[in-house]
Write a structure and sequence with these properties.
It comes from Solanum bulbocastanum. The chain contains eight helices and 17 strands. The protein is an alpha+beta fold and 409 residues long. Strand 6, helix 2 and strand 7 form a beta-alpha-beta unit.
Length: 409
């Protein structure tokens, strides 16, 4: 079973041979549209027919996914004489690094739009609604200064890929990996010679700006992310002997360390796996019961993901030095134990570049993990700018490190 937390959920791409004159796209009006949008969202599960699906509960706030970004919009599509809402799309704009393969250490920033949350009613597909929603969101993005737009989807989601690549002219850009680890009933031990240090938001910002200066998609407003109430903190793992001659407040890096931040997505939305057979459900329940009764066995139990649950997103993941992989595994054990103490947290989720060396140090269950696909489009192909080569010459020469903004999840 593969969980898909990406937002695209189209069962087929649009057929532009059908008329679109009756489609009206406008901005979301919370007072007027909330109930209709919630009803539309409730009809949409992620997954293929006959397979387990993933339902998303936005907990009564249709724009919860984009509220934490300063510049965002939600559009709705009305169809027919009655003006029924048959489609929605969300988008936000931020300034991020585009990667820097030159000799200068200074980050290169570009304004970019992120497209997410596209929904089309199952009764109104093949009418051009999805395409029109994307086009209107792109126009809003250009008006607000975005040079590029990008979206993310499960690499196996053929319908979403067909829509964005063949209908909306996006190009396949990056293929990061989404790594998922269940939160078990037992605690995971942290090695006795390793210390976990909490890093202040100010120091975390300084560290991250240096670590990810040459990466892609590192947000310029990282300080707002680290100060956000959804951020549980930034934590660094170091050998205990390092604490004798390293002061975290000095701003310098220890010789070997691992670092990450923890984002609490369960305050934004919750998930539920549906469509699992009774046999699989019973097997999963059995692992949990055994793990709960005999935690010293450390049974790799499957948490209850068949009721509404939340997850922690681990981001800003980085390690250095010979002990880096071992330190990173200890950090994940520490984060796991945080989730273990939270009755609503069922999973730890991370997303890293496909070729990022840190990928091998991250614990995960391959059955729960999947390959992501990021597609990108230059919004004004006639405009010449210094960042024109991001999609062209850097495809093969770019950094393997992608910074995943937790607000995108």
């Amino acid at each position: 079973m593969s969980l898909n937390i990406s937002e695209e959920n189209l069962s087929t791409y649009d057929n532009t041979n059908k008329k679109t004159e009756e489609i009206v796209v406008r901005q979301y009006d919370e007072e007027k549209d909330k109930l209709a949008v919630e009803e539309l969202e409730g009809q949409c599960d992620f997954g293929q027919r006959g397979q387990p699906s993933l339902f998303t509960d936005l907990m009564g706030d249709p724009i919860s996914r984009i509220r934490n970004l300063p510049l965002h919009v939600m559009l709705v599509a009305e169809y027919g004489n009655d003006g029924d809402i048959v489609g929605v799309i969300r988008g936000c704009i931020k300034t991020v690094t585009r990667g820097n393969t030159g000799s200068t250490p200074c980050p290169v920033y570009v304004k970019i739009a992120y497209v997410l949350g596209l929904r089309v009613s199952s009764h109104h597909r093949r009418l051009g609604i999805g395409t029109k929603l994307v086009e209107n969101l792109e126009e809003w993005s250009k008006i607000n200064g975005a040079k590029y737009a990008y979206m993310a989807t499960d690499s196996s989601n053929e319908a979403s890929i067909k829509l964005f690549i063949y209908k909306c002219n996006y190009a396949k850009f990056r293929t990061p990996s989404v790594l998922v680890q269940p939160v078990h009933a037992h605690y995971k031990p942290v090695a006795s010679d390793i210390a976990i240090v909490r890093v202040s938001p100010q120091l975390s910002e300084s560290f991250y700006r240096r670590i990810f200066a040459n990466s892609e998609f590192f947000p310029k407003d990282i300080d707002h992310i680290l100060d956000n109430k959804l951020n549980f903190g930034t934590f660094m793992a170091v050998p205990k002997k390092t604490l004798l001659n390293w002061d975290p407040k000095s701003g310098s890096f220890p010789q070997t360390f691992a670092i990450l931040s923890v984002w609490n997505t369960k305050e934004v939305y919750k998930l539920q796996v549906r469509g699992v057979s009774s046999l699989k459900y019973a097997c999963c329940l059995g692992t949990r019961v055994l793990d709960s009764w005999m935690p010293w066995l450390r049974v790799p139990s499957i948490p209850n993901i068949f009721k509404m649950f939340g997850f922690y997103l681990l981001y800003g993941i980085h390690m250095e030095g010979k002990d880096g992989p071992r330190l990173m595994k200890s950090l994940y054990a520490f984060a796991h134990n945080m989730g273990r103490n939270d009755k609503e947290c069922r999973l730890l989720v991370s997303e890293v570049g496909f070729d990022d060396p840190i990928k091998e140090a991250i614990p995960r269950w391959n059955k729960f993990s999947w390959g992501d696909l990021w597609c990108m489009k230059k919004l004004d192909v006639n405009e010449l700018s210094t960042d024109d080569n991001w999609m062209e010459s850097q495809v093969s020469n770019s950094s393997s490190v992608i910074f995943v903004d937790p607000r995108d999840f």
